Amino acid sequence: MATYRDQGIVLRSYKLGETDRIVHLCTQGRGKVRAVAKGVRRPGSRFGGRLEAFSHVDLQLYEGRNLDVVNQAELIAPHARVREDFALSACASTMTELADLVAQEGERDNALFLLLRAGLQALDAAPPEPAVFVDAFLLRLASIVGFHAFTEACAVCRTPGRHAFLSVKAGGTLCAACAPTGTRAVDQDVIEAVRLLGAPGEWAALPALARDRPDAQRTAASYVRAFVEHHLDRRLRSYELVPRQ
């Protein structure tokens, strides 16, 4: 069997037999990898504790016919604080649930890997309102896989501007000409909140959004969840556990 090295983030794992685990990894070079970690549930396993959920690891693996086999695992960032705190763990679980859904085996997706790494790093800092990072992650991941929420142009006709109507199905804001009859206008603070959540790299502005404009953030969060679940056709189970103030 051929061997290879890669960095990966543990998305989830489950038991196999009496001592093994199957782990799902979001890797930097190979997309999603499903691998067997043999003997990790035995006392004194040499790398069992390095393959916990959310861990960022450097790996050596053997290529298998159906599942690869983990041969070595070295921790890069354990994210232990995230696992130990219920609120942070619920947020990270939502991130990894969606990453596990959209990542494809054998298809490199560096943007997804970097986004997940950034999201977990943000949670590891124990922010006072971690849920806002979940909403940002969801909207940005949807954009990576082809579902972008337009906030600076009409989602239908692409007329530029800050429009007053917001649509889940159409994919963002709508101008007056494209909005269906009876559609209610949305406050511009909500539109701005959705824009910040979806803006690549704008992590630093998120705590202030949650702190200074909580009503707009809550409305934007509801939109983000509906948008992601509609366009990815998947109900996010972990999202129910994300704490909200």
Provide the descriptors you would attach to this structure in a database record.
245 residues, alpha+beta, OB fold (Dihydrolipoamide Acetyltransferase, E2P), de novo design (two linked rop proteins), 5-stranded mixed β-barrel, two-stranded antiparallel sheet, elongated
Topology:
Blueprint: E1 3-16, E2 20-27, E3 31-37, E4 56-62, E5 68-77, H1 80-84, H2 86-102, H3 110-124, H4 131-144, E6 165-167, E7 172-174, H5 188-198, H6 206-212, H7 214-232
Parallel strand pairs: 3-5
Antiparallel strand pairs: 1-2, 1-4, 2-3, 4-5, 6-7
CA distance, first residue to last residue: 51 Å
Tally the structural domains: 2
Sheet with the most strands, sense and barrel status = 5 strands, mixed, barrel
Question: Secondary-structure element sequence?
Answer: EEEEEHHHHEEHHH
Number of helices: 7
* Percent helix: 25-40%
Please identify, by name, the CATH architecture of the largest domain. Up-down Bundle
Low-confidence stretches: none
Q: What fold name stands as the CATH topology of the largest domain?
A: de novo design (two linked rop proteins)
Radius of gyration: 20 Å
Please provide a written account of the structure.
The protein is built from 7 helices and 7 strands. The N and C termini lie far apart (about 50 Å). It has about 240 residues and is of the alpha+beta class. Strand 6 (about 165) and strand 7 (about 170-175) form a beta hairpin. The protein folds into 2 domains: about 5-80, OB fold (Dihydrolipoamide Acetyltransferase, E2P) (Beta Barrel), CATH 2.40.50; about 80-240, de novo design (two linked rop proteins). Helix 2 packs antiparallel against helix 3 (about 110-125), helix 2 runs parallel beside helix 4 (about 130-145) and helix 4 packs parallel to helix 7. The strands form 2 sheets. It has a 5-stranded mixed barrel. It has a two-stranded antiparallel sheet with strand order 6-7. The protein has helices spanning about 80-85, 85-100, 110-125, 130-145, 190-200, 205-210, 215-230, and strands spanning about 5-15, 20-25, 30-35, 55-60, 70-75, 165, 170-175. About 40% of the residues are buried.
